Amino acid sequence: xxxxxxxxxxxxxxxxxxxxxxxxxxxxxxxxxxxxxxxxxxxxxxxxxxxxxxxxxxxxxxxxxxxxxxxxxxxxxxxxxxxxxxxxxxxxxxxxxxxxxxxxxxxxxxxxxxxxxxxxxxxxxxxxxxxxxxxxxxxxxxxxxxxxxxxxxxxxxxxxxxxxxxxxxxxxxxxxxxxxxxxxxxxxxxxxxxxxxxxxxxxxxxxxxxxxxxxxxxxxxxxxxxxxxxxxxxxxxxxxxxxxxxxxxxxxxxxxxxxxxxxxxxxxxxxxxxxxxxxxxxxxxxxxxxxxxxxxxxxxxxxxxxx
Length: 307
Prior knowledge:
7 helices; 9 strands; alpha+beta; about 10% strand; single chain; globular
């Protein structure tokens, strides 16, 4: 049927969808996101503004896609919470194969957003050929008289360390054995399962509390990393878009807190060869699984949650 005929009248029904931030950030962060979006759309109506604003509206779309993927990680977190065994002294292991797929996608979307943001600044703003986020700081520092660049350097410095080992590599001079970031490994040389330390494990401590152990990949917790990126990617991108689009307002890191809680613990942070306390984790593989006991600092039990 042709609904584009001259002289005909048509009725249209608009149905509101989910907010573009997918309710993944605090009330303050969501308000900033929505106000920034309204500013961009309003300014875009002026034709001479469009060339500059196209890249920043696109950048907000990159952030939207990232937040959608974070919402899928939250679903995995919620499902695991509902799987905690009821009987004290019992445990359950969840392989997390679906979560691994979504986590890999999350890393790709996060790094893609950062690289596209870098291109928007380096090439389309300063006419420098660069689309790698890890080089953006040096480009900005090379423009000491540019206030926008100076402001963004401070924003990047507030969060960049949290990206190391996942979205970007550790410095070549770093003493860490695992210098290559997970995103790079998964994109070029390794399946997620090859980096798997152990799956999700839920230990029922007593009738009121349980200890939730995060699935870890090369020492990085899947839920924990996702929760941190939820906050820090949002903070970086909202501030960058605001600074360079002329909105000229900034948001604090605390205003970008995720709307959901990370209740999982990374056991790698509590491993202790000098402790006699042990806890069991399970490592799935392609055909079976391994039961592993790890020596841990008893302080880990303080991270048990009421559930």
